[in-house]
Amino acid sequence: WILGARRARRRSLGARSVEIVGSVPFSLRVGRWAVLLAIVAAVMAVVAWAAAPSSSGVSLLAGAAAVLCAGLVPLVLFAPPSRRAVVFEPDGLRFVEASYDVRVPWDQIVHARILDIEDTLVVALSLRDAAGLVPIPRGRSRDPPAALRRLSRAVSLNRAFYGCDLSIGPAAHGLDPVLFCRAIQTYVSDPAARPRLAPRAALDTAREAEERRGR
Questions:
Q1: Would you give the DSSP letter of residue 199?
Q2: 180/37: higher pLDDT
Q3: Exposed, middle or buried: residue 133 (CB in 10 Å: 0-12, 13-18, 19+)?
Q4: For residue 148, what are the contacts with CB-CB under 8 A and spacing of at least 6?
Q5: Average pLDDT value for residue range 164-179
Q6: CA distance 158 to 67
Q7: Cα separation of 105 and 133, whole Å?
Q8: Can you tell me the distance from the alpha carbon of 102 to that of 188, in angstroms, rounded to the nearest whole number?
Q9: Which residues are registered as beta bridge partners of 125?
Q10: Residue 207 — pLDDT band, cuts 50, 70, 90?
Q11: The pLDDT of residue 167 is above 90
Q12: How many CB atoms lie within 10 A of CB 121?
């Protein structure tokens, strides 16, 4: 998997102007972790069953591990972090978190770069005015001050660890990190490309209207 990821990274480095599907949420991919936990739970259950006649201690520990891993599966699938997503919109890049979402206008992004954190690629964003971002509360908690505090904490942590204002691991959303960063750079540097991030239905309607005018 690591070798395949490195080959894909080398292929992507040649890309310059990259566009992406707009107004479509790229959700956090938690299915693979749920499958891994389910496999571990099944293996531990088999170990507990096999060790039961001879070693009650090993059987007990393996059984507890099986129950723990099985219990974590729905937690991984339906916990608040599983609702995280990133959306490319005409007005900016929208980050959807568990308790809030925030749109980062394209003109606010000064620099987008790739950081290699222990062989995991992270896209780091430096903003003109991070303090001017206004998060919108979502979920059960509709508390704007709490959402602002969470966003401010995230910005502070990113500045402390990565030297940027916001960061995202595209691979966790099923996206190529290099192409993801190139797409951000495209829409930051080329305002004319941003309208193409409108929802497909809106684009189809506009195209049909142009065709009718052409007739």
A1: -
A2: 180
A3: buried
A4: 134, 135
A5: 89
A6: 35
A7: 9
A8: 17
A9: 112, 166
A10: low
A11: yes
A12: 18
Q: What strands lie across the sheet with 109-117, from one edge to the other?
A: 109-117, 120-127, 166-168
Measuring CA to CA, how many Å separate 61 from each of 51, 56, 134? 10, 9, 48
Residue in the block written with tokens 């995202």: 168
What pLDDT is stored for residue 75 in this prediction?
74
CB distance 191 to 92 below 8 Å: no
pTM, 2 dp: 0.71
Which value, in Å, is the radius of gyration of the alpha carbons in the chain? 22
How high is the mean pLDDT of the chain?
A: 82
Determine the Cα–Cα distance for residues 78 and 166; give it in Å rounded to an integer: 25
Strand partners of residue 139: none
N residues, the chain? 215
Locus of tokens 């990274």: 9
Cα 158 to Cα 143: distance, rounded to the nearest angstrom? 23
Alpha helix ranges (H) inside the chain: 2-12, 31-51, 56-78, 144-161, 177-189, 200-214
Residue 130 structure tokens = 């991070």
pLDDT in tens, 12-67: 666 667 888 888 888 887 677 778 888 888 888 888 888 777 667 778 888 888 88
